[in-house]
Design brief:
Layout: E1 10-13, H1 26-39, H2 47-64, H3 75-85, H4 92-108, H5 116-124, E2 129-133, H6 138-147, E3 156-159, H7 160-163, H8 170-179, E4 187-191, H9 194-203, E5 207-211, E6 227-229, H10 232-239
Helix pairs in contact: 1-2, 1-4, 2-3, 4-6, 5-10
Length: 242
C-alpha cells in the first residue's frame, strides 16, 4: 500500500555520506586523540601525525578489502592498530578514554549535508521515513545523528549494530519495513553506496536511489532502473515527482 501521495509507503535513507558528511570532523577527531596522547605523555609527535597514521592504517585495510569498508573496522580496531604502529602502549582505562575523546569530537562536529531539510520534507509527503545505517556502535551513531541536528526526524532508526543485520543483507531492510508496517516492495531506499544501499535495497524488493555529493557522472554498470541523483535537492525533486 503506497503512502499519502500514491507513490511509496515509506522512504528510507542511509546516514553517512547521504545525510551526514562522511568527512565532517573525522580528521579533527583523530587529531584530538593524538592531542590527548601528548597530554598523557605518551606521544612526542604533533597531534596531527597520529591522524596521519590512522589514515595510513585504514587505507591499507581498505586496499586489502577492495576499497570496501569492512564491517569489523570500527573505531576501537583502527585505534588499536594505529597505536601499535606508533608503538604506544596504553592501559584499558586510557584506551577507553581515547575512544571517548574520539566519540565526543566526532559527534560534536557531525554536519548534515546541504538539502537535508528539503529531501526529508519531500519524503514525508509519501508516508513514514526511516533511517537504515551500518555502524557497529549504536550509541555513537545516535550521538552523530544528534550532533548533526537530525534527531527526531525519523519514524524509525535502524542501526546494524543494534539490529544484528548489516547492509547489503536484505534482512535489515525487511526489518525496517516490518517495523513501520509497510511492504518493502512499496518502499524506496536512498543512499550513496552501490553495494550497501543500492544492491541491498534491490535485494529486499525496494526501489533504490543512488545519491552523490560531488556531481560525478552516473557510475558505470549501474542498473538502468536505479534512480541516480547528483545531490539531495535532486532527490527531493524526484520524490516530488519532478
Amino acid at each position: 500500500m503506497s503512502g499519502a501521495n500514491g507513490r511509496f509507503a515509506a522512504v528510507f535513507f542511509d546516514l553517512d555520506g547521504t545525510l551526514v558528511s562522511e568527512r565532517s570532523g573525522v580528521r579533527e577527531a583523530r587529531t584530538a586523540v593524538g592531542a590527548r596522547l601528548i597530554e598523557l605523555g605518551l606521544y612526542r609527535k604533533p597531534a596531527s601525525a597520529f591522524a596521519d597514521t590512522v589514515e595510513t592504517v585504514i587505507g591499507g585495510i581498505m586496499e586489502d578489502n577492495d576499497w570496501q569498508w569492512p564491517l569489523w573496522l570500527h573505531a576501537e580496531e583502527w585505534m588499536k592498530r594505529s597505536l601499535a604502529v606508533e608503538e604506544i602502549a596504553v592501559g584499558e582505562d586510557e584506551f577507553r578514554e581515547l575512544n571517548q575523546v574520539y566519540r565526543d569530537e566526532r559527534s560534536d562536529r557531525a554536519a548534515a549535508i546541504a538539502g537535508w531539510p528539503e529531501v526529508l520534507s519531500a519524503a514525508r509527503t509519501h508516508g513514514p521515513i526511516g533511517l537504515i545505517t551500518n555502524f557497529n556502535d549504536g550509541s555513537m551513531q545516535r550521538e552523530k545523528i544528534r550532533g548533526a541536528g537530525l534527531e527526531g526526524q525519523f519514524n524509525g532508526v535502524y542501526i546494524s549494530g543494534e539490529v544484528g543485520l548489516w547492509k547489503p543483507e536484505p534482512g535489515i531492510f525487511e526489518h525496517a519495513a516490518r517495523d513501520l508496517d509497510v511492504d518493502p516492495r512499496d518502499c524506496v531506499h536512498i543512499g550513496n553506496s552501490i553495494q550497501s544501499d543500492v544492491e541491498g535495497a534491490l535485494s529486499a524488493g525496494m526501489q533504490a536511489v543512488l545519491v552523490e555529493e560531488d556531481d560525478r557522472p552516473r557510475p558505470p554498470g549501474l542498473n538502468g532502473d536505479v534512480v541516480w541523483c547528483a545531490d539531495l535537492l535532486g532527490v527531493a525533486s524526484w520524490l516530488e515527482g519532478g
